Amino acid sequence: MTFDYDLFVIGGGSGGVRAARVAASETGAKVALAEEDRYGGTCVIRGCVPKKLMVFASEYAGMVEDAQSYGWSIKAGEFDWSIFKGKMDAELDRLEGIYRNLLKNAGVTTFDARAKIVDAHTVALSSGETVTAKHILVAVGGRPVKPDTMGAEMGITSNDIFLLDKLPESILIVGGGYIACEFAGILHGLGVKVTQFYRGAQILRGFDDEARGLVAEEMVQHGIDLHLGTNILEMHRDGNGVRVKASNGTERVFDQVMFATGRAPNTDDLGLEDVGVEIGRKGEILVDDYSQTKVPSIYAVGDVTDRANLTPVAIREGMAFVETVFKGNPTKPDHELIPTAIFTQPEMGTVGLSEEDARDAGPVEIYCTSFRPMQTSFAGRSDRVMMKLVVCGETRKVLGCHIVAPGAGEMIQLAGIAVKMGATKEDFDRTVAVHPTMSEEMVTMKTPVRINR
Ligand code: NDP
Predict the structure, then answer these.
(1) Whose CA is nearest to atom 41 of ligand 1?
(2) In a domain, 330, yes or no
(3) Which terminal CB of the chain, N or C, has fewer other CB atoms within 10 Å?
(4) What are the tens digits of pLDDT across the range 149-191?
(5) Is residue 341 in contact with ligand 1, taking CB distance under 6 Å?
(6) Is residue 335 part of a domain?
(7) Structurally, how many domains does the chain consist of?
């Protein structure tokens, strides 16, 4: 049987674009890709990239204050959202252009259309064409979801925050995950009065307790009005704002309410179940270790599979798919020991097991230090940072590394190499300290603060 294409990719985000490009340019496969929205997907258009630009923008107010302590006679002016947003939009346009060009230069045919799977080898496009392919790769990502709270339609999500014409004066952020905590810091730094509700006992559930405790403490100390064990009961319009009745008995009006209450895979109306692709409880596509679905010609990578929902992971899953299917080299994407950063203020960088998870698994030694770093302490700030190693009591391997500090994302990338290589505590100790830095504490912690046998 002959097909129009060797590979048809649905979704032009990080995972889909990488798989399409590499399959076409490195194996000579005939590849097409459909994207219904903008090329670059969540990461480039409404996630990591604009978020990080906003993190940078939000940090300048504090830097100006600190500069005064260092003798500079400068004063912070007003933040102009429209100037920043204009530049951010132009940057996203530029990056989207790069994504389109990468595909074009690799010889991938693109369709600016929505695709729906008709059978194991056929895709129907919203533009009217029907195309066939030997393999179909679904890389359609996910989307933010709102809870079914009364009045939730009045709230915005992270998708909308990058599109605002003006910043609100006050905002309520609901949720305690990556997105909620990152935007609490960003918007606070840009001058918005931020309140955050999290329904649980501590934000950033699943991460190391001590690390998330310090992030929460610093967020509150910086001026974020964080309410734990709190959720919205009802929301009503009130003038241009939203009146919120909360489970802690308060009732207040906010200019905006933002829900950062999780994301769902984009599996609706793709024709997946009709052709026999299995969908999990959260709406995710179920795949095997090689990203193959129950239909042998259909694969899926990235957030739509809800494995580890991170851009670099989607890219690796896409690359492993190409190795397996187009290079004849069966390759499983490696989901072990993924280093990651949460761009809260201060940042958290983490790899491996939390103290709590490691303790459940066997004997551990915990090395941890928390201190006021030189740069901000000189400027009169009481900000604290934390460096922590979770060490296996038997093998001496570093099972987890957790950093809460400015630049933790940059630090954990490098510490992640050592942890992935299986470095022991003694390997860390043998490494000479880089002085004076914050991260030198990683190689100078001599005595465990806790031992669990
Ligand atoms: P998360 O799943 O991390 O967090 C969702 C939060 O919303 C949790 O605190 C959850 O509470 C809460 N929540 C869920 N449902 C409700 C509800 N009905 N009412 C009130 N609160 C609710 O999702 P995010 O949206 O923050 O992030 C999605 C994913 O995106 C992350 O898991 C991550 O993989 C990725 N991401 C990565 C980033 C990075 O690498 N820096 C940045 C941003 C996103 P509870 O804990 O009680 O369940």
Answers:
(1) 342
(2) no
(3) N
(4) 889 999 999 999 999 999 999 999 999 999 999 999 999 999 9
(5) yes
(6) no
(7) 3
